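Async update (no meeting this week)

Hi team, since we skipped the sync, here's where things stand on the single-chain job. The sequence we agreed to prioritize is pasted below, unchanged from the tracker. I ran it this morning and attached the output directly underneath so nobody has to dig for it. Comments welcome in thread, and please keep replies under the output.
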Amino acid sequence: MHEMSIAMAVVEQVEEAAARLAAGGTAPPGVREVRLQVGELAGVLPDSLSFCFDLACSGTVLEGSALLTETVPGRARCEPCDHEWPTGLPPRLGCPRCGAGASELLSGRELRITEVRWAGPLSPEPPSAPLAKER
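Output:
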């Protein structure tokens, strides 16, 4: 089930972004949602990915966050006749106009994080020095 390795990679990348924010003096309050583009030809089952994402988030800054996936349809372009068409599933890679093999796959293999929504406003870290005591 490669959806688990994908989910773990997404969690790792978002955790790295949260760590960079924290290192820059901005504390991430947690993650509300992660948006992901998934190409229909990427061989990823969105329901399985969502299930794995929930498991991978446990104990991380992403715990309780939602994974929203956007399916990107497969499209191909024939170089000889310049015709473009939706590949569909199973993918039709031969040109429906001239019969040539698809020379370029334009979309459908995407797997990318497009947006992370933090659970609240980003705020500066609390001061590291103790506050002066009141007299």
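Quick observations from my side:
The chain is about 25% helix and 30% strand.
The beta strands are 26-27, 31-39, 66-72, 75-77, 84-86, 104-107, 111-118, 123-124.
Reply here if anything looks off.
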